Amino acid sequence: MTSTPTGRRVTIDGLDSIAFDRTFRAGLEDVWAAVTESDRLARWIGEWTGDPSTGSVDFRMLYEGDEHQAEVFTIQECQAPSRLVLTSQVPGEETVWHMTLTLAEHEGTTTLTFTQSVGDDPAMAGGVGPGWDYYLDRLVAAETGGDPASVDFSDYHPVHTQHYLNMFS
């Protein structure tokens, strides 16, 4: 399968970011659960541990090899079930990623808009863009009865790297 890059450049809180939209024939609460509940996240991206009421959780990607270190996700804002603002950072690394998830429902269809900053280095867009297209397509597969494992990362990276680099050049 050949994928198509879907991200667009946006500025959020003064940060260069990439935004992605995915639409689901599902209610707002169901899509919210798919992007916030650890067992649902584990089907397509990773899992978190900890207590979100403390303001942060440890998140570990499950589909990037066993060596992937857990990141600390700090909850900056949570307006369930429609808006979640997070920062993430791998312990010991300087880069802080800023992410926003916004959900809106209209007549039984929910649109998820996901954004992530590209950090201080616009070249990061070459990995951020294809990576999120890949993971969000895995989410769509998981939530529509498909097999997330059928989504092949090589259809996204490095195929779409230049597309995303060009957004910030």
From TrEMBL:
Domain Activator of Hsp90 ATPase homologue 1/2-like C-terminal: 28-141
Gene3D superfamilies named in the record: 3.30.530.20
Coiled-coil region: none
Organism: Streptomyces nanshensis
Protein family: Belongs to the AHA1 family.
Superkingdom of source: Bacteria
Listed name of the protein: Polyketide cyclase
CDD domains: SRPBCC_CalC_Aha1-like_6
